[in-house]
Design goal:
- The complex is a heterodimer.
- Chain A is mostly helical.
- Helices cover 75% and strands 2% of the residues of chain A.
- Chain A has one domain (48-370): ABC transporter involved in vitamin B12 uptake, BtuC (Orthogonal Bundle).
- In chain A, helix 6 (133-147) packs antiparallel against helix 8 and helix 11 (233-254) runs antiparallel to helix 13 (274-296).
- The two termini of chain A are 26 Å apart.
- Chain B has 14 helices and no strands.
- The longest helix of chain B is centred in the first third of the chain and has 39 residues, at 73-111.
- Classes of the chains: A mainly alpha, B mainly alpha.
Chain lengths: 371, 361
């Protein structure tokens, strides 16, 4: 793992040396101090993040505007700022908004959660998916769908399934977290225990599917891919406030986040209480992923792909938090838009996310190699 | 300690005690360990022949293995059970176990990532996608028909991943390889889901395929699989010295005369053959390769010339054991070996991790 970290840093350094004029300037005078706050000003990172945010907002509005009853983009934006017509307001606020907002919130939550996990584990293959959260939630949901038999339909349509899945995901995630705790959290121990828990939960899911009636299997499979269909405001509010609250916590600790990449000794030397910081950030990552799963089901791979894509777009040596969240949101809303409008058959958003996200990551890798 | 000895430690230990003696001692321990593993494998194989829905005595197993057809109906029945059910199943568990164990150790070495599993190169996802697609398109229904499509899918996925990660500069860089593997896996898994959701027959086949089982495959499939695994093993063993050097870093390896591109290509080919063949015959058995690679590293230390044979034998022992357990726990039904590997192996592995038994490199 140490080698992987070196490789990650190496890529960053390479990008700097090969980089354009702005980056050279950034390396000459990077620090900005405003009163008691200081930060590093990297124009390229800021630009990429802004463009990604603008893109996410645009897709968000597009997602609201496109549908059986099309609404112009300008009206959408007017309504969002409280100056729309009444008919539009009904369609937008009651019908389309929950779905679009769920996509935005879940995307951001997954992106940030992935960036945190990969940074803490110092492993680009790490993601909340291997901390057992997704698999725990899936096992509980599949259990409810397949074992409850005739009552399945009633359970599936209710909020109860989301809540139970949330409990399952959270339970597994916290179990992994505490099992990995031994005089502090160690990234390597955490992912190995996480992988074990995930493998167990996945085996349970597989077994439940093998035992189940084929009709229930189809329903379970849809849940397992993740979907933004039929979101209600209740679910969205929970996800929205949960994500916002967790992001505030992350923002408060984030200034101590960067030194963690240098390893414990250097971080301690720079005055970071790395044990506490890492524990808090990791807990936030677990909770963010759990919130996302409860709102959209286990949308796969966003948390894995988004930080890696953001890292390469922003030319950072480590996953950038804000940009990762934006890439996550772009990916999820964009995929949902494509799934709803462009495809001849209806497919769950998770399928589109993976079909777009996987190859895009590969494209970025190949392009980096060709340079 | 066996684990303490690497090429570098020998020079320091030489000051106090004869390095040669330490090396011989370590080698003896590793050979003894290897012997114990072989013995365990034989015991497991014997158990696997005897245990099942119809338990057999050692004498009955012996008779079933070596006697010809007889007039006695009971004895003939036993012979049939041993010949057509137990022997193929045991053989496949050994072959697949060795393949996945060796594959797991190799993939961790070539990607230099301790959480890499045999599925990382897209092998499992490629096989699943191929199987689901041929079922949906051609309406094949028996596993005998789609095994070879599974192998083809696995091989193509492996080649694509390695090919993409080898384009341009920094060819075959471990991180690029791992991430490209993830990207392709993600893509193929999603396509698999899309096909399975639109075709009920393939969804039905997929759920059984995903469980990963060594049962119900006969020798028409096992022989060719064994040939592929054998070829993979030969390639794997050839690259082990170079893999040791590669793990010191590309620059050091190049300086010591390793042809990096060649040994990576051979190594990845070996992994694809091993994991692809095993997956085609059994379905995806996750976690096995990862687990035994760590166990082997704990037992032998980082020298791949020892680590890989240990991992192979451990893989076979663990898979046989899990298959036997699977036949016993939910009688008269059975639990698929792949499910048991995860359910039993994961807690065991987690305890070892928690006790700090594994090192990251």
């Amino acid at each position: 793992m140490r080698r992987v970290r070196k490789r990650m840093n190496g890529t960053g350094r390479g990008a700097h040396m090969r980089g354009s004029g702005t980056e050279v300037k950034a390396t000459v005078a990077p620090g900005v101090r405003l009163g008691g706050v200081s930060f590093v000003w990297r124009p390229w990172v800021a630009l990429v993040t802004l463009v990604l945010a603008a893109g996410a907002f645009l897709l968000f509005c597009l997602s609201i505007s496109i549908g059986d009853f099309p609404i112009g983009l300008s009206q959408v934006i007017a309504t969002l700022f409280g100056r729309g017509e009444q008919v539009d307001e009904f369609v937008i606020m009651d019908l389309r908004m929950p779905r679009a907002l769920a996509g935005l919130v879940v995307g951001i939550a997954l992106g940030v959660s992935g960036a945190l996990t990969q940074s803490i584990a110092r492993n680009p293959l790490a993601s909340p998916d291997i901390l057992g959260i997704t698999q725990g939630a899936s096992a509980v949901a599949v259990f409810l769908i397949t074992v409850s038999g005739g009552a399945a339909a009633a359970v599936v349509s209710s909020v109860g399934l989301s809540a139970a899945a949330l409990a399952g995901g959270l339970g597994t995630g916290l179990l992994v977290y505490f099992l990995a705790w031994r005089r502090g959290i160690d990234g390597f121990r955490l992912i190995l225990i996480g992988i074990s828990a995930s493998a167990m939960m996945e085996a349970i899911t597989t077994w439940l599917l093998v035992k189940a009636d084929i009709k229930d299997v189809a329903r379970a499979q849809v849940w397992l891919v993740g979907s933004l269909d039929n979101r209600s405001w209740d679910e969205v509010w929970i996800a929205l406030w949960g994500t916002l609250g967790l992001l505030v916590v992350v923002a408060c600790v984030a200034f101590q986040f960067k030194p963690l990449h240098f390893g414990d000794d250097v971080a301690a030397g720079l005055g970071v209480r790395f044990g506490v910081v890492r524990a808090v950030l990791l807990l936030c990552a677990v909770l963010l992923a759990a919130v996302a799963v409860s709102a959209a089901g286990p949308v796969p791979f966003v948390a894995l792909v988004a930080p890696q894509v953001a890292m390469r777009l922003a030319r950072c040596p480590t996953p950038p938090l804000v940009a990762s969240g934006m890439v996550g949101a772009l990916l999820l809303i964009g995929s949902d838009l494509i799934a709803r409008t462009a495809l001849p058959i209806t497919v769950p958003v998770g399928v589109v996310t993976a079909v777009i996200g996987g190859p895009f990551l590969v494209y970025l890798l190949v392009r980096a190699n060709l340079k | 300690m066996i684990r303490g000895i690497t090429y570098f430690d020998m020079s320091t230990t030489a000051v106090e005690r004869p390095a040669a003696g330490v090396v011989v001692d370590a080698r003896r321990r590793r050979v003894v360990g290897l012997g114990i593993l072989v013995l365990l494998l034989v015991v497991m194989a014997a158990l696997s022949l005897a245990v099942g829905a119809r338990a057999l005595t050692p004498a009955e197993v012996w008779h079933g293995l070596f006697a010809g057809p007889e007039s006695d109906r009971r004895l003939n029945e036993i012979r049939l059970i041993v010949e057509t059910v137990r022997v193929p199943r045991t053989t496949l568990a050994i072959v697949a176990g060795i393949a996945l164990g060796v594959g797991g150790a190799l993939i961790q070495g070539y990607t230099r990532n301790p959480i890499a599993d045999t599925g990382l190169l897209g092998v499992n996802a490629g096989a699943s996608f191929a199987v689901v697609t041929v079922i949906a398109v051609f309406g094949l229904s028996s596993p005998f028909q789609y095994v070879w499509f599974g192998f083809l899918g696995a091989a193509v996925a492996g080649v694509v991943v390695f090919g993409l990660s080898s384009i341009g500069r920094g060819a075959g860089n471990p991180l690029t390889l791992a991430l490209a593997g993830q990207g392709i896996t993600v893509f193929l898994a999603a396509m698999t889901t899309a096909v399975a959701l639109s075709d009920r027959e393939s969804l039905n086949a997929l759920r059984f395929w995903n469980a990963g089982s060594v049962a119900g495959v006969d020798f028409d499939v096992i022989w060719p699989i064994t040939v592929f695994v054998g070829a993979g093993l030969v390639l794997a063993l050839m690259t082990l010295p170079a893999l040791n050097l590669l793990n010191l870093g590309d620059d050091v390896a190049r300086g010591l005369g390793v042809n990096i591109a060649l040994s990576r290509t051979v190594g990845i080919t070996a992994i694809t053959l091993l994991a692809g063949a095993a997956t085609a015959a059994c379905g995806p058995i996750a976690f096995l390769g990862l687990m035994v690679a760590h166990l082997a590293r704990y037992l032998t230390g980082p020298d791949y010339r020892w680590l890989v044979p240990y991992a192979g034998l451990l893989g076979a022992v663990v898979l046989l054991f899990c298959d036997i357990v699977g036949r016993l726990v939910v009688r008269p039904g059975e639990l698929e070996a792949g499910v048991v590997v995860a359910l039993l192996g994961a807690p065991f592995f987690a305890v070892l991790v928690w006790r700090g038994k594994f090192k990251s490199a």
